[in-house]
Amino acid sequence: MSVEHLKELDYALSELCGLKNAIYRLDPPSWLSAH
Q1: What's the rounded Cα separation, in Å, for the pair 35 and 31?
Q2: Which bin fits 28, alpha (ψ -120 to 50), beta or left (φ > 0)?
Q3: Tell me, what's the pLDDT at 32?
Q4: Which residues contact 24 (CB under 8 A, 6 or more apart)?
Q5: d(Cα 6, Cα 10) in Å, to the nearest integer?
Q6: Distance in angstroms (rounded) separating the CA atoms of residues 35 and 26
Q7: What is the DSSP string of 1-35?
Q8: CA 35: distance to chain centroid?
């Protein structure tokens, strides 16, 4: 695995996390709002 490949993977992961956070803000799961 090259460094460039790891960078792309890291970028994709951060994009995924951002997307998940955005979804949570729009439609929080019930276990999240229970706290």
Answers
A1: 7
A2: beta
A3: 63
A4: 32
A5: 6
A6: 17
A7: --HHHHHHHHHHHHHHHHHHHHHHHHS--HHHHT-
A8: 21
More confident residue, 23 or 12: 12
> Does position 4 have pLDDT exceeding 90, yes or no?
yes
Q: Are 19 and 11 in contact (CB under 8 A)?
A: no
CA distances to 2, 16, 31 from 11, in Å: 14, 9, 28
pTM: 0.56
pLDDT at 15: 96
